[in-house]
C-alpha cells in the first residue's frame, strides 16, 4: 500500500469529523447534496462517458473544462481514471481487472486497489487517443489543484452565506466540512460501490 495515497484518502474521511465542531444547518446540508450531485455528474458524464468511452464529441476548450471539473471529485486526473477504467472493461472480472471482487476481496475492489503502488501509474497503453493531448497530460501532474480550489470555494460560499443571510446559521468552516469533506467522502464510496457491490451482486447486460 502506498502511504502517499493513503494519507489524503484517510484525511478526507477524518475531515468529516469536523462536523462535531461546526454543527449542521440547512444551508450546509443543501450545499453537500448539491456538490455531491454536481460532481457525480462530472464523474459519470465526463470521466466515464467522455474520456473513458468517448461516447460523445466536444471542442478542445470544453474537453479541458470537462477534465478540470472531473478533478474536483478527488479521483485523480482524467487520464489515470480512463486508463484504469478501460483496463477494467477489457479484462472485466479476470486477474487483469484492476478492481474485481470476483478475483480479490470486496474491500480490495472497493478502496484498497487504488492505494497500491501498482495502481498509482497511468496505464498509457490504454489511452493512446488521450496521451497526445498536452493540456490533459499537464493537468494530470496537478490534478489536486481543482480539488483544492473546490474546497476554497466551499469555504467562501459559507462565509458569503454567513454575511448575507445570518439567519441561516452557517459559516465558512461548516460549509467546508459539509460541502467538501462530507460530500466528497460520500461521493467516493458511491462511486466505489460500482466496482465492488455492483460486481458482487449485479448482473452483466
**Rg calc:** 18 Å
Number of domains: 1
Following the backbone from N to C, one meets helices and strands in this order, namely HHHHHHHHHH
Number of continuous helical runs = 10
The low-confidence runs, each spanning 5 or more residues with pLDDT under 50, are none
Shape call: globular
Percentage of residues in helical conformation: 55-70%
Counting DSSP E segments of at least 2 residues, the number of strands comes to 0
**Whole-Å distance between the termini?**
33 Å
* Average pLDDT, all residues: 89
SS strand fraction: under 5%
Report the structural category. Answer: mainly alpha
Major sheet details: none
List keywords for this structure.
single chain; mainly alpha
Walkthrough of the structure:
This protein has 205 residues and is mainly α. The chain has one domain (3-14, 25-201). Helices cover 65% and strands 0% of the residues. It has ten helices and no strands. The protein has helices at 3-15, 19-22, 26-52, 60-71, 78-90, 106-112, 134-141, 144-164, 172-195, 197-201. Helix 8 (144-164) crosses helix 9.
Q: What is the compact description of this entry?
A:
By secondary structure, the protein is mainly α. It has helices at residues 3-15, 19-22, 26-52, 60-71, 78-90, 106-112, 134-141, 144-164, 172-195, 197-201.
Helices and strands in order:
Layout: H1 3-15, H2 19-22, H3 26-52, H4 60-71, H5 78-90, H6 106-112, H7 134-141, H8 144-164, H9 172-195, H10 197-201
